[in-house]
Specification:
Radius of gyration: 18 Å
Number of helices: 7
Shape: globular
Order of helices and strands: HHEHHEEEEEEEEEEHHEEEEH
Structural class: alpha+beta
């Protein structure tokens, strides 16, 4: 595995020194605009493999994307190899339909320490909840970024990651949530909770299997491919392409949705996300909202 190949993959030609916040932010932003957050293997009859070498082969060599266990594991190797002080952390994603954080540790994120200041780094959440810059690990501080205002809050050793959202102009009059199918909540959006206990990637092995096989899993019910852009993000879920432009007008985000055919899905993956699949994708977008 070579850093040079990774930087070519994300089109990063900037400096690798000094090991400061500016350099880390530049690498993170190139990563999230080059490497999609996606689960397409599941819907191509393939397995999402576990471990750094498999992730490197998939993302760097085969020009694919990945989910958090892939994107953030690769980022941890990159940053550590560059010389950053990086630790793996585990989090519990908020489940709106159950109004609680998941019981299972199902999301990987990173902590980086620069000149004594700790930051959270996450290159693997996707859509509107993808941070564009590392967040200071400071409780209760609003941290404005292009996607919106992010906030970390600590309570009795547990940290909570939230986003204060803008209002939107939407082509969907119902303004449904991208992942969770019900009406999109406005105001403050809960994303995940975590502690600062250092983790190893092996602690996520079971979840790597469950998330791609459990019938109720978001990743089983929906084919997802999301990529950050210069002004927002684009995401293909099933046959629906959603394009979001942040702060489009009057402190509001513009959301535009288009329904594609099977042929247009394949073309869109190539042209919008630079992904060419080896096996045929079977798009899917099943509701997570219980029917009874």
């Amino acid at each position: 595995m070579k850093l040079k190949e990774y930087f070519a993959r994300i089109s990063y030609k900037g400096p690798l020194q000094p090991l400061d916040l500016k350099t880390l932010t530049a690498v993170l932003q190139h990563h999230i605009r080059s490497v999609p957050f996606e689960n397409l293997n599941i819907h191509c009859g393939e397995t999402i493999k576990f471990g750094l070498e498999a992730v490197y082969e998939k993302i760097v060599k085969n020009h694919r994307g990945g989910w958090c266990l892939e994107n953030n594991l690769l980022l941890s190797w990159v940053l550590q190899t560059m010389g950053y002080d990086v630790t793996l952390l585990g989090s519990y994603v908020y489940v709106p339909q159950e109004n609680k954080y998941d019981d299972a540790m199902n999301h990987l994120l990173l902590k980086a320490v620069i000149d004594g200041q700790a930051y959270t780094v996450d290159g693997g959440f996707g859509i509107a909840f993808q941070m564009w810059q590392p967040l200071e690990l400071v409780s209760g501080k609003d941290q404005p970024q292009k996607p919106g205002i992010f906030r970390l809050t600590e309570d009795n050793g547990v940290w909570y990651f939230d986003k204060i959202k803008r209002q939107v102009y939407s082509s969907d009059s119902e303004n449904k949530s991208l992942y969770f199918d019900g009406p999109e909540d406005s105001g403050c959006k809960k994303i995940y909770s975590f502690t600062l206990k250092p983790r190893t990637i092996e602690e996520f092995r079971e979840q790597n299997t469950i998330l791609q096989t459990a019938p109720e899993s978001l990743f089983v019910k929906k084919s997802i491919c999301s990529l950050q852009t210069a002004n927002g993000f684009q995401v293909l879920i099933g046959w629906t392409l959603t394009e979001t432009t942040y702060d489009y007008k009057d402190n509001m985000d513009l959301i535009e949705r288009t329904t594609l055919t099977d042929e247009e899905v394949e073309k869109t993956l190539k042209e919008r996300f630079n992904i060419r699949l080896k096996k045929k994708l079977v798009p899917i977008n099943e509701s997570l909202v219980p029917t009874s």
